[in-house]
Amino acid sequence: MASRILGISAYYHDSAAALLVDGEIIAAAQEERFTRKKHDAAFPHHAIQYCLEEAGCALGDIDHVVFYDKPFLKFERLLETYLAFAPKGFQSFRRAMPIWLKEKLFQKRMLKEALEKDAPDFAWDERLMFSEHHLSHAGSAFFPSPFEDAVVLTMDGVGEWTTTSVAIGRGNDLKIHKELHFPHSLGLLYSAFTYYTGFKVNSGEYKVMGLAPYGEPKYKDKIISEIMDLKDDGSFLLDQSFFNYCTGLTMTSEKFHDLFGAPPRKADKDPLTQDHMDLAASVQAVTEEVMLRITRSLADEFKIPNLCLAGGVALNCVGNGKILKDSAFENIWIQPAAGDAGGALGAALTAHHMTFGGKRTIAQPAQDAMKGSYLGPRYEQNDIEARLTALGAQFEAVSEADMLEYGASALAEEQALGWFQGRMEFGPRALGGRSILGDPRSETMQKTLNLKIKYRESFRPFAPAVLREHVADWFEIDEDSPYMLLVANVQEKRHLQMTEEEKALFGIEKLNIKRSDIPAVTHVDYSARIQTVHEATNPLYYRLIKRFHEKTGCPVIVNTSFNVRGEPIVNTPEDAFRCFMGTEMDSLIVGHCILKKADQDPALAKDYKDAFELD
Amino acid sequence: MSFIKELWAFMMARKKFWLFPIIIMMVLFGGLIVLTQGSAVAPFIYTLF
Fold first, then answer.
1. Which residues on chain A place their C-beta less than 8 Å from a C-beta of chain B?
2. Chain A residue with minimum CA distance to B25
3. Is residue A439 over pLDDT 70?
4. Model confidence pTM above 0.90
5. In Å, how far is A294's CA from the nearest CA of chain B?
6. How many CA atoms, within 13 angstroms, populate the side-chain half-sphere of residue A518?
7. Superfamily of A181-333 according to CATH
């Protein structure tokens, strides 16, 4: 009988479920997509239900359920930390204890009860397993990778104790070799600057990364010399007198504020200044320095040419791009759901291979096992039409060829196009399943998408999706980057010369300068977060871009996630229609259905801009 | 009861016996806080909890 293992991450942020059948990844999804609550931390009832439907089985058919971290170990860290800092930290202790003593310490029971709701007659005690947080990350990075052996590096805020781990993966085995422990954490250092520059911890880190190219890393040396004790091999200690996260309810301390000469920025009151951009550039530069020191020393120590990455820090695609360019490792593979959602998948894979000895086979030619990360729900054409009709949407159902022709023409006419096809992506990036697309040659596209469709800050860059065979002609990279986790510069021949006046501009003033042939996806430092599009993993998306290429000579389009600021990426045709109607998107393609904004009943548009809490 | 057993097994595995009296004290102290307060709301800094 087939072995079925369900992985779960929950109770902290980004709850998710992933299902393996005989070691094959059948389905994986984040709970937020179903509940429409960004970073939803609740038990992933909906995601589990979906995974079971996809596999055509019931919860009772599952052999083992694996949770992605170990609550007792986390509690141990909590108590030891409070003890180490006592009596400082009483306020934090006072607020943390109730939630631990009422809920989190009893996670096994909570999991059991949640599972019993759907399948009451099973001995869940025997089927419930726990994997360590960073082992889950490492498992998610190595087991689906296209490598027989690899160095596996995981970095995040914190799991139980570990903040950075190094493991070696061989065949179906994975051994952790070394770790850095809390409170010394690269993720938390980045989050401290995220907090200090006025963004939300655990979601604003992308913004800091996007803001960095507008600044100069003038504080890099200060951070390394005063806050950190950074060794040649990339290991480090953080001077805790600059931080407050161990004992307080903020990330940074007064000493930190004194060092950088101001209190933390208040998002609702204080404008973003050049200094904030310089701080963002500095922490980004420090992060890259640490990542490079670690990877160089690991390449030297283990002499293995392959590197796998996971953990929240592995979503820092600028840093990943630097590691690739540095060439200490010949090959890099990054788990697309590198954050905690991916822990659900890693926990299941770790149990399958390491506990139950499941064999690992790598598809030839070497290919990862993530299926393009298209692991979520899909909707058949008949179902889509019925759902759109029920919503009162005006649409035209056409052939696939006509749909692609319409899509490519709409893009060439500089329309903002909603694109809803096939299975939903697992992980934070939209990869052509639930995307908003645009023409990268347009000078106004970045502004339009940011301000009229995504309702987000104007400085934030957009990513290009490019046909794999053309990537080297447009960008300084000739590698697969299917998950949008590598950043590289736009080819120099595509750059546009700046005038002397433009060169003299500083910081955010640079935003409106046309810097290349594809300005909508060229960041101020000429960098771009690249998605290579492959016919094998997403043929429809590939053919759309190919048709756009035939029409315009440009094999690149803008790809951004199908949502507005603060909203989880759309899951159902209904979500897509609501988002389409609530924003200034021009056209929407769902399956083979074409929807034009001008044809829709304006009464169906609901206030959308303020429907979601800002991230 | 199974919770106590598991906690004990955990401490055996981790060999942190010196933590035991501290855990008891802190849990009692924490328990008092729970009893004297109605709702359990997590502080906003996610990473610690």
1. 12-13, 72-73, 76, 78-83, 92-106, 108-109, 125, 157-158, 185, 187-188, 191, 201-202, 245-246, 249-251
2. A79
3. yes
4. yes
5. 23
6. 35
7. ATPase, nucleotide binding domain (3.30.420.40)
